[in-house]
Structure formats: structure tokens, C-alpha cells
Amino acid sequence: MAVTRTFSIIKPDATRRNLTGAVTKMLEEAGLRVVASKRIHMTKDQAEGFYGVHRERPFFNDLVSFMISGPVVVQVLEGEDAVKRNRDIMGATNPENADAGTIRKELAESIEANSVHGSDSDENAKIEIDYFFKPEEIVG
């Protein structure tokens, strides 16, 4: 399996509860390496642009409001089959359906406040990484 990169966000519900380290530890224990990380407070324009694919969905405005409600930590993760590995450790979107030991099962508050976002494909990982990071900010 090839070493690839993926994108991750530690969401406002997790940063509010000071879980950045706990989430990062779970990612690292799953075999992912953080090669870029920064704590930001997304603007409304950033959140709307990032989640633009969901613009027509009924939850779009609530999602944007949530994502700008507090700081987030955006990260580039690297490892073998990084997208799949990250999605496996994140767990199902709904924490009630997530497997024990996953980030969402252990740390999420609800389906909306589910602590983390992760890219769903290698193609989207590149787009999402480029949205928040310059190449020189990624140090692998």
C-alpha cells in the first residue's frame, strides 16, 4: 500500500472541550502522521466555500454556523492508504453507529457535533489540503 495524504479537521465541539491532543493521539496511534497542522477560526466565507458541495442541502446553513462557532484544527495526515485509515479511525458520521474505539464513538457529542471531518477520497483530499495549506506549510 502506498503512503498517501489526507485532510482532517478537528471541529469546534472538540476544540471547545480541549480534545485536540486526544484526537491527534488517536490519529497517530492509527498509523497516521501529522505533517501539517494549524488552529484557525474559519470565516463564514471559508466555511461556505469549503462546504459548497452541500449548499443546496437543508443542513448547509447550520453546518456553516457550527463550523464558524469556534476554532478548528486543520491537519494534513500522511500514512499508508491515509484516506481509508483516517475514515476508519473517525468512525461512522453518527456516533451512535460508530464502532467502539473510534474518534466519533469515544469523543463526539452528536451527529452534528461529531468532532472530526476527513476527506472521503484521494481526489477530495488534495482539494481540501490545497484549500487550507500552501505547499511549504506541509513538512513530511
UniProtKB/TrEMBL annotation:
Cofactor(s) the protein needs? Mg(2+)
Q: Name one GO biological process term.
A: UTP biosynthetic process
- Note the SUPFAM superfamilies from the entry: Nucleoside diphosphate kinase, NDK
Cleaved signal peptide residues:
none
Subunit structure as annotated in this protein's UniProt entry: Homotetramer.
NCBIfam families on file? PRK00668.1 (NF001908)
Please state what the protein is called: Nucleoside diphosphate kinase
* Phylogenetic lineage: Bacteria, Pseudomonadati, Pseudomonadota, Alphaproteobacteria, Sphingomonadales
